[in-house]
Amino acid sequence: MTDLAPGVFLISSTLKVTAVFTVLMIAVAYTTFAERRVSAWIQDRMGPNRVGPFGLLQPIADGIKNILKDETLPGTASKAFFVLGPMLSVMPALVLFAVIPFAAPLPTPWGTIPMIVADVPIGILYILALSSLGVYGLVLGGWASNNKYAFLGGLRASAQMVSYEVALGLSLVAVLMLAGNVTLTEVVFQQQRLQFWFLFPLSLAFILFVISAFAVTNRLPFDMPEAKSELVTSYHTEYSAMKFSMFFIAEYAHLITQSALMATLFLGGWDIPFWRGDDAFYRNGAWIRGFDAGGVPIAADLAWWKTLLTLGMFALKTGFFVLVFIWVRWTLPRFRYDQVIQLGWKIMLPTALAYVMAIGGAILVLDTVGVPFGPLYGLLLTAVSLVATGIFVFWLDRDRIIGGASHPARRRLPKRMPAGLGPQAKAGEVEPGAAERGEAEGEEKRLLAGSSAGRLTP
Amino acid sequence: MAVTVKVMPRPEPGRSSYLRAALKGMGLTFRHLVNPRKVTLQYPEEQPDLSPRWRGTHRMEVHADGRPKCVACGLCPTVCPANCIRLVGGEDDQGNRYPIVYEIDEFRCIFCGMCQEVCPVEAIHVGVHLENAEFSRDRFVYDLDRLMEQEHSTTLLWDPSDRKSE
Lengths: 458, 166
What we know:
The complex is a heterodimer of chains A (about 450) and B (about 170). Chain A has about 450 residues and is mainly alpha-helical. Chain A contains 15 helices and five strands. In chain A, the strands form two sheets. Chain A has a three-stranded antiparallel β-sheet, covered by helices on one side. In chain A, strands 1-2 form a two-stranded antiparallel ribbon. In chain A, helix 1 packs across helix 10 (about 240-265) and helix 10 (about 240-265) crosses helix 11. The longest helix of chain A is centred in the N-terminal third of the chain and has 37 residues, at about 5-40. Chain A is globular and about 70 Å long. In chain B, a hairpin with a 5-residue loop joins strand 2 (about 85-90) and strand 3. A three-stranded antiparallel β-sheet of chain B has the order 2-3-5. Chain B is of the alpha+beta class. The longest helix of chain B is centred in the first third of the chain and has 16 residues, at about 20-35. The chains are: A mainly alpha (about 450), B alpha+beta (about 170).
């Protein structure tokens, strides 16, 4: 993308890949540690604090333990797929990080180096493609284990992924419309130009994205695929030692990547709030930080300390989301399976569709009226989004998520029930609600019940 | 105490909430997260407070001259429900009975404390003691010398007139 010399590009890219991979793996290790400490604190315990100062060497001890442990291979498992499962689940989670810009570009004597591993022009599409690939590892691992719990877990993982990828993708559409591009560097730049993090003008998309992110990372309250109390540990029941560890690494890498994504898409990425000096974007062969009133680009003011500061900002935002993930996990109980699917298809999908229409309309109106892309534009969109979010939250918070099969509101049974299955099918008995709905309907129901009874009994 | 059942009514249609309830829960967990008071006992450094009526491994009381107080009456092996006490009594020149063999298998013992209750001379006691790990199984059969060497405090017997041991 940039005008670096091929040699510089090669060397800087190699360095960036190594650094990002290393940092990500260390971050994964310490996220497991943070999970254990935070969960302990929430439960008024202390958590691991023996290995090293404050227990900080605990992840290393865990790693050594997992490497030294005996690896078992179930006799009835399909060996190739069994081995492939963990690999396939860990890879997409790590590769996903390649397109996330993590700091302001770094000026060096050999040219300005963008702080992103691969500034591909299809950023968000790449994310959508790869983040759903991760579930193949779980499904393969679960299926190849030849274990009923693992199999159920794999099935649940795929069903959940299919349900929530849709809402995830649709909530991204709103971001794409506002940013006007699918490159993540441009998404960050547009947030800097707007002087508004997309969190505000696209608040409902943010909420939908967060809910979907919980679902696609299989975190509580959406940990249906893992469901320790129902399915042992489901897809990794049969795995031990490092293969189990791979699933674990994949889960946490996914968690970090999704947090980084949320930070990038909705919290301005590496942007430092209320300060325009760090803005930078590569456009037509030059680093710019915005446009003046006449639409002429202003050159970006780059410095190594700005790179460091923005890197810290990015880590802070990502870390915040990681903490929220952990915090939610140790607060909310797991959804029932039907609640998960219902939330995905009957609530998230229509809401996301309606929101895309609403925000698209609002953007169209703003562009047609000629509001310049800046704070006012953001403020108006924020108003529209807040109304939408308010309606959604009010509606969602009344009977929409919990409740379910035995809830009085849903106790109305389907009209055509085979004889002996529904309470209204008992001969001569009218259910309590039938009186209000009129005798005629009750009569019809009895007739229906009678006729189906006739059909069923030979 | 009488057992009571509290019937929780299902929420009326339109009244059940998830988001508000979830946020309330998040607030609760956050308060616990930042609360510095933790219940964890940092065990090897901090020792638990054992009740004075805690029944742990046994000890044998000794006279000032180092002889065991036991008179080998045979009541404790008789009363022991787990049959873990082995006692062979003997008699010295003055006609005093004393134990030649006194062994307690701490693996079989169920720590009911009946040996202490039945002892007429307050010789055998269960003790307020927790850390009794060993490296081999046979170390768990405590002989007379071992029982006499124990230094932990002995268990307070339950007094019916002072139900809470105050």
